[in-house]
């Protein structure tokens, strides 16, 4: 079988299929339903310095070809995360599979938490993920995806205090997302993780009120895949950073479409709600595809649609 090992900046992954942050939880919750050793990596659910209760319910609602969600980065905070969550993560996943996702309100929050996280777990994980994407919080994450200078300063400041590879997850909901991506690249990120999902709303005709407690929330699932593929296509033309793309990937064909558009790796998210083994199903499909095409290697597929005659 051909190797699907992939290099993303300074990060070497066993394969390019990742469990996306949030939807995959902390990884170990899926151990009874899938083979975690087959994951290229798991981007863990984002944590912050202080505990967060998240947004008011209702937080999830099904929509056509997708799910509307508004979680608000609910998490137990640093102390419980370090003491209780990480031991379970490290027991379930290998070092090269663990990507710790970090959130904050301010630049100083991110810098301090990234530094402390590396001090505690630097030799036991593959990379840090800066969550600069979440649109469900008032401060922090989403704001850094709007402002190129703020995004650049965030990445540069984190890189100055950690030696671990740094992945930046940002959202593409803003018209200047290509400019922001360039700023992230200039700041020294090892890879870029996209796409965050466009905002939507669902109204309950019975109550005549939005179903989501926060009124609006990101849409995830197959409905957004064409948007994600286009964003990936444009990012590939703009930056040289490796791109980890997500958004509506349910099958290996969906994943391959993103790769042909320019992604080096893919994140499997909401598909796991319906099928906890979705990431392995995608990986198996990609392995079968490559085994049927002796002339192809994974790097040759990345961005191949840009070179098609």
Total number of strands: 16
- The biggest beta sheet, please? 8 strands, parallel, barrel
Order of helices and strands: EEEEEEHEHEHEHEEEEEHEHEHHHH
Which consecutive residue ranges, at least 5 long each, have pLDDT under 50? none
* First-to-last CA distance: 29 Å
Shape: globular
Question: DSSP strand (E) fraction?
Answer: 15-25%
Nearest-angstrom radius of gyration? 18 Å
- Number of H/I helices: 10
The residue-averaged pLDDT reads 93
Find the structural class using helix and strand composition: alpha/beta
Order of strands, main sheet, comes to 3-4-7-8-9-10-15-16
Question: Your description of this structure?
Answer:
It is built from ten helices and 16 strands. With 309 residues, the chain is an alpha/beta fold. Strand 1 (6-8) and strand 2 form a beta hairpin. The longest helix is centred in the N-terminal third of the chain and has 15 residues, at 78-92.
Index terms:
8-stranded parallel beta barrel; 309 residues; 19% strand; single chain; alpha/beta
Summarize the structure.
By secondary structure, the protein is α/β, with parallel strands linked by helices. It has 10 helices and 16 strands.
Itemize the secondary structure elements and their pairings:
Layout: E1 6-8, E2 11-13, E3 17-19, E4 41-43, E5 60-63, E6 66-69, H1 78-92, E7 98-102, H2 107-121, E8 127-132, H3 148-159, E9 166-170, H4 177-187, E10 191-194, E11 199-200, E12 203-204, E13 209-210, E14 217-220, H5 225-238, E15 243-246, H6 252-261, E16 265-268, H7 271-274, H8 278-291, H9 298-301, H10 304-307
Parallel strand pairs: 3-4, 3-16, 4-7, 7-8, 8-9, 9-10, 10-15, 15-16
Antiparallel strand pairs: 1-2, 5-6, 6-14, 11-14, 12-13
Helix pairs in contact: 2-3, 3-4, 5-6, 6-8
């Amino acid at each position: 079988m051909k190797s699907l090992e992939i290099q993303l900046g300074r990060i070497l992954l066993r394969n390019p299929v990742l469990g996306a942050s949030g939807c995959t939880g902390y990884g170990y919750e899926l151990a009874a339903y899938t083979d975690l050793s087959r994951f290229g990596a798991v981007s863990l659910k984002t944590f912050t310095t202080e505990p967060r209760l998240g947004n008011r319910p209702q937080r999830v609602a099904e929509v056509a070809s997708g799910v509307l969600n508004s979680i608000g980065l609910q998490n137990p905070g640093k102390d419980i995360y370090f003491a209780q969550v990480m031991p379970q993560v490290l027991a379930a996943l290998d070092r090269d599979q663990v990507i710790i996702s970090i959130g904050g309100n301010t630049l100083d929050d991110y810098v301090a938490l990234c530094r402390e996280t590396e001090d505690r777990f630097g030799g036991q994980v593959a990379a840090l993920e800066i969550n600069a994407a979440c649109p469900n919080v008032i401060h922090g994450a989403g704001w850094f995806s709007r402002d190129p200078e703020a995004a650049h300063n965030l990445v540069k400041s984190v890189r100055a205090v950690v030696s671990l590879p740094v992945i930046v997850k940002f959202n593409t909901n803003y018209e200047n997302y290509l400019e922001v991506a360039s700023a992230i690249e200039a700041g020294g990120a090892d890879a870029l993780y996209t796409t965050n999902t466009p905002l939507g709303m669902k109204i309950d005709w019975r109550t005549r009120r939005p179903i989501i407690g926060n009124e609006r929330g990101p849409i995830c699932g197959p409905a957004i895949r064409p948007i994600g593929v286009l964003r990936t296509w444009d990012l590939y033309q703009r930056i040289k950073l490796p791109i980890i793309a997500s958004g509506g990937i349910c099958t290996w064909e969906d994943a391959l479409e993103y790769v042909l558009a320019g992604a080096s790796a893919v994140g499997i998210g909401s598909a796991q709600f319906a099928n906890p083994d979705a990431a392995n199903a995608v990986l198996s499909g990609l392995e079968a595809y490559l085994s049927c095409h002796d002339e192809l290697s994974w790097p040759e597929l990345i961005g191949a649609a840009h070179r098609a005659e």
